[in-house]
TrEMBL record:
Entry superkingdom: Eukaryota
Transmembrane feature ranges: 103-122, 181-206
EC number: 3.4.21.105
GO cellular component, one term: endoplasmic reticulum membrane
Lineage: Eukaryota, Metazoa, Chordata, Craniata, Vertebrata
Record keyword Nucleotide-binding present: no
Chain's gene name: RHBD1
Record-level GO BP terms: apoptotic process; cellular response to unfolded protein; cellular response to UV; membrane protein intracellular domain proteolysis; membrane protein proteolysis involved in retrograde protein transport, ER to cytosol; negative regulation of apoptotic process; positive regulation of protein processing; post-translational protein modification
Protein name: Rhomboid-related protein 4
Length: 316
C-alpha cells in the first residue's frame, strides 16, 4: 500500500478552503485538533502506509499493536483525507457542542481504539469461517470507521427525518446501513469491515453498555459530564436552542436561531457531500469525462433544481 504521488493535492486544498470558510474560531477545539492532526500526518506521515495500516497479520500475529494508534491518522490519498475530514467537520460541530469538549475527546479516542479492535475481530472471524487467509492480510487505514460510529451517535440524538443516500430518502435510523452499502457499491475498494466496525461501536455506545463503561472508567469526571460551553438542543421546527454556562453560576437563555450550514456545504446534506466526494475521487483516479465542479461551493442549475425538488418532498 503506497500513497499516490500528486503534483497538486486538490483534496487537501479543498479541505483547507472549507475549514477557513467555516472559520477556525467557529470550530470546537477537539474537532479542530482532530482535523489538524490528520492533516499533519498526511503531510508528515510517521511511517509509510504499509507500516501503519491495520491487519490481523501485522497486529495479532506479528504483535505490531502500535498500528491501532497509527491507522486512523493516516490516509491513502488527498481525496481520502478530504472526504473523511469534511465529514468530521460536520459531525464534530454538532456532537462536540452537544457532549462537551472533554467527553467528545474521550469518545474520539475510545472509538478509534475500539473500531480498530473490532475490525481485527471481524477480519479474523471472516478468515476462520470462510477459510480464506487473505482476510488476515487485508490492511486498512483512515478515520472513516470512527466517522461511522459518530454518525450513529448523531442519528441517535437526531432520530427524526430522512437522509438523502444517492438520491433516495432513507430514515435517519437506517442511514448508516444504507450509506455502508452505498459506499461499497460505488467504491468497492473501501474497507467494508472497517466501516461495519464503526457502526457496531456506535451502537454499543447508544444501545449497549459502552457509555456506562466509559463513565466508570472516567472515574472522577463521571459525575461532571457537562462542561461550560454552548449546548445545542435541536427541535423539530428546524431551529436550535442554546444555553451558556459560567464558572460562578448559570445564566441560561433561549433564543431561536436558524441552523444554516449552507456557508460551508453549499446547501448539500452530508449524504449529498458523500456522493459528490466519491464521484470526484473516482474521476480523479482516471475516469473519463469533464472535470467535476468544485465540491461544496457551487451548484449547477440542474443540481439546484434537484435540491428544490428535495425540499418540496421534505415539506410534504
Amino acid at each position: 500500500m503506497q500513497r499516490r504521488s500528486r503534483g497538486i493535492n486538490a483534496g487537501l486544498i479543498l479541505l483547507l478552503s472549507q475549514i477557513f470558510h467555516v472559520g477556525i474560531s467557529n470550530i470546537p477545539p477537539v474537532t479542530l485538533a482532530t482535523l489538524v492532526l490528520n492533516i499533519w500526518f498526511f503531510l508528515n506521515p510517521l511511517k509509510p502506509l504499509f507500516e501503519s495500516c491495520l491487519s490481523v497479520e501485522k497486529c495479532y500475529q506479528q504483535k505490531d499493536w502500535q498500528r491501532l494508534l497509527l491507522s486512523p491518522l493516516h490516509h491513502a490519498d488527498d481525496w481520502h483525507l478530504y472526504f473523511n475530514m469534511a465529514s468530521m467537520l460536520w459531525k464534530g460541530i454538532h456532537l462536540e457542542r452537544r457532549l462537551g469538549s472533554r467527553w467528545f475527546a474521550y469518545v474520539i479516542v475510545t472509538f478509534s481504539l475500539l473500531t480498530g479492535v473490532l475490525y481485527l475481530f471481524l477480519e479474523f472471524a471472516l478468515a476462520e469461517f470462510l477459510d480464506e487467509p487473505d482476510f488476515r492480510r487485508n490492511c486498512a487505514v483512515g478515520f472513516s470507521g470512527v466517522l461511522f460510529a459518530l454518525k450513529v451517535l448523531n442519528n441517535h440524538y437526531c432520530p427524526g427525518g430522512f437522509a438523502n443516500i444517492l438520491g433516495f430518502p432513507v430514515p435517519n435510523r437506517l442511514a448508516c446501513w444504507a450509506e455502508l452499502l452505498a459506499i461499497h457499491f460505488i467504491s468497492p475498494g473501501t474497507s467494508f469491515a472497517g466501516h461495519l466496525a464503526g457502526i457496531l461501536v456506535g451502537m454499543m455506545y447508544t444501545h449497549g453498555p459502552l457509555k456506562k463503561i466509559m463513565k466508570k472508567c472516567a472515574g472522577i469526571f463521571s459525575s461532571n459530564m457537562h462542561y461550560p460551553g454552548q449546548q445545542y438542543h435541536v427541535n423539530n421546527s428546524g431551529y436550535s436552542r442554546y444555553q451558556d454556562s459560567y464558572q460562578y453560576g448559570w445564566q441560561t437563555y433561549s433564543e431561536e436561531i436558524p441552523r444554516n450550514y449552507d456557508a460551508y456545504t453549499a446547501g448539500l446534506s452530508e449524504e449529498e457531500q458523500l456522493e459528490r466526494a466519491l464521484r470526484a475521487s473516482l474521476w480523479d483516479r482516471g475516469t473519463s469525462g469533464p472535470s467535476p465542479p468544485p465540491y461544496g461551493f457551487r451548484l449547477s442549475a440542474e443540481e439546484e433544481m434537484r435540491r428544490q425538488r428535495l425540499r418540496r418532498f421534505d415539506h410534504q
